[in-house]
Amino acid sequence: MDLPLPVLLSTGHLYAVTGAALVGLGLYAFITLRHPLRQLLAVNVVGAGIFLILGGLGRGPDATDPFPQALVITGIVVAVALTAFGAAMIVRQAQTRAAAKPAADDNENPAP
Amino acid sequence: MSPLDLLMAAPLGFMAAALMLGPSGRWLILLAAPLMAGLALWLALLPPDAAYLVGQWDLPLGILLRADGVARLMILATALVIGAVGLHALAEPPEKPGHAAQAETFWPLVYLMWAGANAGFLTTDLFNLYVTLEMVSLAAVALAAMGSLAAALRYFMIALLGSLAYLLGVALTVARYDTVDVILLAQVAEADLATLLALGLMTAGLLIKAALFPMHGWLPPAHAAAPAPASALLSAIAVKLGFVILVRLWFEAFAAVTGPAALHVLGGLGAAAVIYGSIQAMRQDRLKPLVAYSTVAQVGYLFLAFPLVAGTVEPSGAWAGMTLHGVAHMLAKAAMFLAAGLMLKAVAGDRIADLGGLAQAMPLTVTAFGLAVVSLMGLPPSGGFTAKFLLLSAAIEQGAFLYAGVLVIGGLLAAVYLFRALSACFAPLAGAGPDTASRGPVTGGVQAVAPLALAGLAIVMGFAGTALVDVSAIEAPWATPTVIQPEAAP
Amino acid sequence: MTFAFDLILCLMILGTAAIALFVRDALAAIAFFIAFGNLMGLAWLGLDAVNVALAEIAIGAGVTGVLLILARARLLALGDAATSTGSPLLLRLGALAACAGFVVLLAAAVLSIPPESGLDRVVAPLMPGLGIENRVTGVLLAFRAYDTLLESFVLLGALVAVWSLAPAGAWPGRPADPGMADAPMRRVAGTFGQLLLPVALVMAAYLVWAGSDLPGGAFQAGTVLAGGLLVAGMGGTIGLPSSDQPLLRAALVLGPVVFLAIGLAGVAAGGLLVYPAGLAKALIVTIEYTLFLSIGVTLALLVAGPPMPGASDPDPEGKG
């Protein structure tokens, strides 16, 4: 179907602007949400938005630039690596808080 | 083979080897420390135009590695700091007692940070820098978590935000210019909305990573709570990569875009950081938070130098002052954290008031702390003095008396808070007799020699002033038109 | 694809993202996040970026989703429901104004850049020299292989970082049981796992091979392997490995180390990561196969989390 809309916005720009909106949404959530796990989710939404900007603006008339595509794949892998570490820290912090009533001292004291 | 690739490849090899060797992987540092120092020295002595394209792929697509003066000095300091910290950690286990996982994972994480820092200092590619930034941040957060998980989680979240801001800036740059290479960008960058937003985002993200006031909030708790070797690496290495990338952005890639007003914003934040960090350091009554807040202040000088470098036609002095300040701070602060760790292990508490009697009990360590104090304050002769002197004369020459004033006041404030800690060590031991303290602490061994060597190097830097100034000028963006002329792609 | 489709898809992406971010219940949030990730995958298909679509669905939605579900389940067991709690109105208003302003600025910047596949023109003439068809694989494993090499160590480093969180006395040890399956489910997973693991292995191996010429590659294939390993691990087909098993360590470092070795061997041909003429495809495929194996094992262990005391370990060794 042929809507008059394509004149206003190319496909690439449509996705890139959607990406920009995702960045804003995720940022707002990151600031206002208190729970670290939800913040981690927000960070992933921001990341997805950035990737979409890269992809959308790499969208040529007949192909999408492989260069930003490769950067996005690298970025997705880095994001999952950091998310895994973040999630593990959040869980460990909850476990330590739940387990240790006598809060462990943060300074390392040697056992002579 | 070239040090340009070995400086990245060797630590990654050590990381994998440490993982394969398990608990005995810790001994690898005996091999890594001299090897990396040798490679760093080799790099420093390369001809001035040393650079090459990874995989021989041309620039808009490929990645260029380049040994400019900043990279040479930073990598040499990194090799000295991580080598010394590693040897110290070999003798003085960094983990919390009983934490076998920390004892084993400490080493691969250190090598990851080493590789990331070296690769980051050498590359001219902004996306490649993103990956190296994540290598360093990941290792830094994990090392900080060995002290306080809560502080590390806070650090992690804010660092994640910084990474995303930087990545978004890189994304806009890729889309706008079809290249992320610093050298190519310098030729094509224009001051349009996309470029300015990209630069602003990258700068904001990196300022978080470099912990410039007011984005420093995560630093003191994380650096103060981490085990001493980890604190040393966090303060010496992790915040420096963000700084070096900012240098690449502001003085090279987007030099044509940045105006004096924006540079004064950075300089002003730097000045504020010097004052704020110093005042906070004065208010601490525990030793490690004092040292951590001193990092907040010292980072300020790095950015205070930005307008001084840009504000003159002959920036070699200010440039060298900025670079040498980074190097001197790496050496002195790493020494100070290691010494502080040993001192706190020797006494009952973690307060400055608890340090009494240590000057007699562990003279080597207190000497190391004292030498680090000399360099951080900027007393002659020391690397800190050379750097501050160069910055001060640049400021006076330009009539930038506000910056000159902050440089002087910052030194005085540093004297106040650092001498307070140092003089506490000379106070008589409160309560018990002096011999109780002398029995407990270790007064010799590698763990005491490492901080002494680092602090000694920070002092020795003061005697190598002109040579270091010359090295810092190699391939500097203002010095000559860049020697590397990558041909444009077909 | 038509513009109407793209437009509806973008609106759905924004809608699912908003729900994932702001719904109260954490599980609902994660469910919508996974839906969001899959729609993002569709968006990448809409952009003709099949490689990214596969990576987004497999890693962005799949692995990240499982990670978040597992983290939420472990938090819930400790009495933390991870519900979104409201923050002060003033903060919300301020953040809203700031973020809205930022989006307007960002959108204006984005719209000022014409969408172009500028570097495609640079990449295309270089592909015949590599002997592979997939341009994205070409960028990832040749033109920007240095990024990918470092990134493979980031992934490895993330696992080391996760391991560093193991509590005192749990090292070396096994990760806690994911606990996502009750007994009957576990039997299903057990039977299923026996079937799935070899199927996943074959499928993943095919994805790597196809990745030279068709969409696919080491990261996507590694995720398939990780999925197979996780289901098999949950069902007991294979035990969750102890962190000190030499074979496990070897599997983790194999890919990154082979990549690094091939990169350094390139020095003989002219420099870091230079592939000698004629050998490019063979080297790329070697890197991809070893990398996929390591990525699969690393991702599975990243999801499983740090070693925990007494986690299906018959002899807790205490302090090492």
Task: Explain what this protein looks like in three dimensions.
The complex is a heterotrimer of chains A (112), B (490) and C (320). With 112 residues, chain A is mainly α. Chain A contains 3 helices and no strands. Chain A has one domain: Orthogonal Bundle (Helix Hairpins). In chain A, helix 1 runs antiparallel to helix 2 and helix 2 packs antiparallel against helix 3. In chain B, helix 12 packs antiparallel against helix 17. Chain C is built from 12 helices and no strands. At the A-C interface, helix 1, helix 2 and helix 3 of A face helix 1, helix 2, helix 3, helix 4 and helix 7 of C.
What best-fitting shape of chain B do the alpha-carbon axes yield?
A: globular
Structural class of chain B: mainly alpha
Q: How far do the termini of chain C sit from each other? A: 59 Å
| Protein structure class of chain C | mainly alpha
Give the overall shape of chain C: globular
In what order do the strands lie side by side in the largest sheet of chain B?
A: 1-2
Strand content of chain B: under 5%
Q: What is the CA-atom radius of gyration of chain B, in angstroms?
A: 21 Å
| Number of helical segments with 4 or more residues of chain B | 20
Mean pLDDT of chain C: 88
Order of helices and strands of chain C: HHHHHHHHHHHH
Over all CA atoms, what is the radius of gyration of chain C?
A: 22 Å
* Overall strand count of chain B: 2
User: Sheet with the most strands of chain B?
Assistant: 2 strands, antiparallel
Q: Low-confidence runs of chain C (pLDDT<50, min 5 residues)?
A: 312-320
Give the integer mean of the pLDDT values of chain B.
91
Domain Na+/H+ antiporter MnhB subunit-related protein (chain C): 191-301
Protein name (chain C): DUF4040 domain-containing protein
Main location (chain C): membrane
Domain MrpA C-terminal/MbhD (chain C): 11-75
